[in-house]
Here is the input.
Amino acid sequence: MNNSALIAINLLVCIVLSPVSKADIIQHSTNHAIKMSSFNLSHQKWKNRVLLVFAPSIDNHTYQQQMQLLQEHNSGFADRDLVLVQVLSTDESYANKQPIDESSAAKLRDRFEVDKESFRVILVGKDGGMKRSYAKPVQATAIFEEIDAMPMRQQEMQEQGRQ
Here is the structure.
């Protein structure tokens, strides 16, 4: 199989398995690819809930507190189809640990009216609507309780119980 076919297969797997769409590939002279990704909230609709964490930078104390509170709750995120998106003003932003481009981050800031110097945590439901907004760090368990009280999540849990 030639290099182009391997790259195409790899990209297809990434696109299928990732909540982030691949917008661009930049080839380095060393033949390593850097994936530039875009994140569009509307692509998550009816598939995933989204937890947006906005902060000025990775060094922001409040951001660091929030990330510590979310750490070690990966199974809770997966159980609830919850995608974590970190939107940072001065550092790279991420969706499920994959870098997203500045344009995607700026669109999220604009949509939720969060300025570059603010910290905010926003929970978006599978219907695409904002469910909760937090101005201070919030426990992962509190977010999970909020989700578990939603009618759609109640239905998901009932369906999981039948399997």
